[in-house]
Amino acid sequence: MPQKIKVLFRHRSMEMGGVERVILDLLENLPRDLFDITFFLTLNQGELRKKIPQDIEFITLQKGREDMSENKFLRTFQLIKRSLILLFFRKFPKFLYKNIIKKDFDLEIAPTYAEFDNILSSPLQSRKIAWFHTDVSYDPDKKRVLHRINNLKKFDWVIFGSQQTKEVITDLYQVTFPKSSVIYNAIKMNEVRKKASEFPVNYDSHPVFSSMGRLHSRKNYHTLMKVHKKLLDEGLKHTVAVIGGGGEMENLKNQAKNLGVESSFLLLDSQINPYPYIKSSDYFVLPSESESYPLTIGEVMGLNIPIVSTNVGGIPEMIEHNFDGYLVEPNEDDIYNGMRLFLTHPDVSEKLKKNLEKSVEKFDNEKIYREVSSVFQQQYQLKG
Predict the structure, then answer these.
(1) Which of 66, 108, 215, 332 would bridge 248 by S-S if both were Cys, CB 3.0 to 4.6 A apart?
(2) Same domain, 173 and 201
């Protein structure tokens, strides 16, 4: 029996997010006859930590916030202690590998730029692979972008989440990556459809635009709320239901209060199963300023919900404009025009729904797992 390839994935924590769902999908579906997989989680934290497959080795460094004391002073002490421990192991990675990880690996995987420095500082003689999902054109901090690009060049292989994610680096920074490939994220249509029927969701008022994403400023929900208010002021009644948590929650709550839309712009926070909320909506809107190849778009297409989405990142590689979705630019006027079209011309959304029934066949997960496995096997062979 051939020796299995020993693979280490590293990630910070498992809050609900696109990258976390991609990691879980790979951990679940990479072939066990080829790979011996270990998952190192810096913080045992986040809603998705319970979804980690049981048949892989799981190593964690520090407790998550969920497992800390409810006593304010003791909790503060635990957080300070945790920070110091993380700082120590970040500065001295040899101690981390010797005392915590305690294994050798053929391949080490950085599934997001947050792990680039950690993987590159590994003392192991492993082949190092990076995943990159970020559209750098929307990051105003050029120093930070260049740091990430320079790190990418140090990896043995880079997997880009979309063609656009790769090409925009060449267009803006004249950097190419000959040791790289584009592999889309797998979209689990059947699982999403099953989960979408697990419980009913009844919105008080229709039509409903659902949306899902981490509450970050680049997700553009503050602009979506302005559009929502503008449409209401024109007499176009509708509800917006946003599924997701994050740092912008308080700002968005305050904005909703100031605009008087608290009852119609629903901030539903993170949900372990968000799909019934989407299935029960009439439309889906994605207002992001930047994306790579968002799982959510494919999942919503699989639920046969008409989508109005910003034309950013790899989204036009998923949606054919005005055929199985409607693409707009990430500004207030364009998002407004797209949502208004859905609200005033039901024939448009009906046409999109009809085309969606066939177009979801373009998402081939088995092909994606084969491509990832092939990259891992090739890198293992180069390790010698």
Answers:
(1) 215
(2) no
